[in-house]
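Work Package 3 (structural annotation) set out to generate three-dimensional models for the target panel prioritized at the project kickoff. During this period the team completed the workflow that converts sequence records into discrete structure tokens, so that structures can be stored uniformly alongside our sequence database. As a representative example, we reproduce one entry of 815 residues exactly as it appears in the project archive.
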Amino acid sequence: MLWFSKFVHRYAKWIAILGTLFAVIGGYYSVLLYKNLRTDIQELLPTTARSVLDVGEVSQRLQSIDSLAVLVFSSHTKESKRFVEDLAEKLEQAPKNTVAGVEYRLDREIKFFKERQALFIDVKDLIQIREYIRQRIQYERELYNPLNIFRSTEIPEPKLNFLSIKGKYSLKAEGFEHFPNGYFATPDETKRVLLVNLPGSSDTINATHRLKSVVENTIAELNPSSYAPDLTIRYAGGVENTIEEQSALVEDLELSTVIVTLIVSLAMLLYYRDIRSTLALILSLFMGTFWTFGAAYYLVGYLNANSAFLGSIVLGNGINFGIIFLARYTEELRNGSTHGPAQEAAVVHTTTSTWTAALAAALSYGSLMLTGFRGFRQFGIIGFVGMVLCWISAYTVLPALLTLFNGKRTPVRESQVVIKRDFSNKFAVFINSACWVICGLTLIATVASLQTFTKLSPDILETDLSRLRNKRSMTEGSGHYAKYVDEIFQHYLSPMAILPHSRENARKIAKALQAKKDAGGKTSPIASVQTMDQFIPENQPEKIKILRQIQRLLPERLIARLSPEDVKLVRAFLNPASFQVFAEKDLPILIQRKFTEKNGAVGKMVLVEPPLDSGNWPGEKLIEFVDILRTTADAIEPNTPVAGGLAVTSDMIRAISKDGPQATLFALISVVVLVILLFRNLKTISLVLFALFLGVIWLAGIILGFKLKINFLNFIALPITFGIGVDYGVNIFQRYRESAKSNILAVIKNTGSAVGLSSFTTSTGYASLLIASNQGFVSFGALAVAGELTCVIAAVIALPAFLVLMNRRRQTQSS
């Protein structure tokens, strides 16, 4: 590598210029990449995943698949009602490509179905009611006939269980009768909600922002305080979830990047006590990072919830190569070398170890590229490219900048290395004096970790995605206010949509699902099944004929003799609207809109509601529910679209269960093969891999022992732990291999501090996510930091302590 070092030294200026130029270009595309951030959960799944394909088809066919819930709070109920009516009227005038529709009341729908409730009773039950009335009239006649006083037997009274018959029929308006006057509100009317529907084909963050902007501007024009002084507006629903999550994600990324940059820069300054060398290291790191995201723009095109936080991770991991290089460089300067020879020595003696570490990390990231899970694959692509480009930057731009900054520099003064030498010396003394204790604790920790493996079960996977959301949203944003939406509606607001391509198939699917619901009873995962046909009763002419017969049996003079409650029941039962046949075109517009597709097709959709507690289902039950819907629909029409949030979550669990272990296994195999091929020395290979496996076993013990949940974000920490964790063993034991006397304590004194600094910067990249408001980021940061600490402790403390004991034993035997 001497020729390369001389080449960099000779063309340092041009390398720095080219590196800067590419960094500027990469920075420009990095901005575009983050502007195209997509936070939708389905963006993490493979494009071929059924839930993704189904959502795509459903969004193309339906007018709307998501909404913004506008919550209105006020103790002045009449004024808040007027405000909602005015807001709805104005929003209905907005362009349909921005606002698909507005829903805030069901009074007309409730009235429509109540007036026609008799038509929803089965013919056989209507006949039973008719016959009961005839028998009842005959009974009354017999009862009041004076000749019957001489009868020896009591006249049998006809009976009919009206409650039983009524209980068989769930009118389409019954589930909404709790709405005061048909408006979406709590019974006391202090909380109201208005749903603003997002157009079905609008699947970008820009569409959600446009809709929210229209709503906010309209509300500002109305001036809520002019209606009531305490009138307050809050937002919930899918649209607000998307906006809040995307906004929080960007804030978290910006904050973590700033924190990592500041802490890492300060750590470099304190460690090297050299502004110029630290500046060269930081600049080379940022160049490598900008190159990475510039390349990612062309390789990936956008970021998702998994790959979004790679900026701070690439910074934290990518600096490791430069740290090791710069540590050896300053060590040579401290030993009396000038810049040129010091740089050459650094290149010659650190290239193998850092390149091995870079490749190991790249392959660990790259293992995620082999999965179909887009969240993993994009993370793997960017991570792989990042590790390679950061290494290239560390061995081209960093030496070039050091040449420009330190080309005529004298050897480093002793005072400049006091901190790192003093720390390394004390650390080595600690390992030497406490080696027995360290080995004992290592054995205990390892045995305890292995015992936790019996606790491994499918429950380790997180199925409640609300636990991965923005914490602020759950405490004071959309997630928090969603409870008021549930309080108002009292049922699942976003049902699963099944869309076969014919109405007949929709009827068959609905019938099959209803049968499964009835068979499951109270334990059924299906709460309700709805189709357009259920809003239009069958056999209307025949029912009307029977109703007219009942009407003739009950003339006004007889009705007048009934109790007030029975009179009310009869009036409702024999409402004039019940004597007219109605069809789809006569249904309230809200019902028609609900089941009408963009092309005008009506009635091809089946809506299935799970219970309200479905968000707390374990993974197996959630998958079972989605499988019931899919297998039932497919048995009638193969590949029928079944869309909804639960379907996406189900596919997410399946993908992680399948792709996660595969990626982890590939990362392990790749790292093992790489170490074997590059070192080809049994002792070094054994030490490096033993330290890695020790760290990984401890990490598994922490996960299982503390019952940490694995989700689509923190699962990534498992495969990349192999690549990042092997870094420390590689650098320690490569130097140990080069040591003439195989003195591990000398290695710790010379390299331990640099390895510790590398671990610190990597941990900083992960730990910066712990302060994120996104709970998924926090879970990843916690697991990644745990993996980082277990691996560095194993490589820098546990295994060196064991080697010290072995060395003492050899010395005792030789003496």
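The beta strands are 64-73, 101-103, 191-199, 232-236, 496-498, 528-531, 606-609, 642-643.
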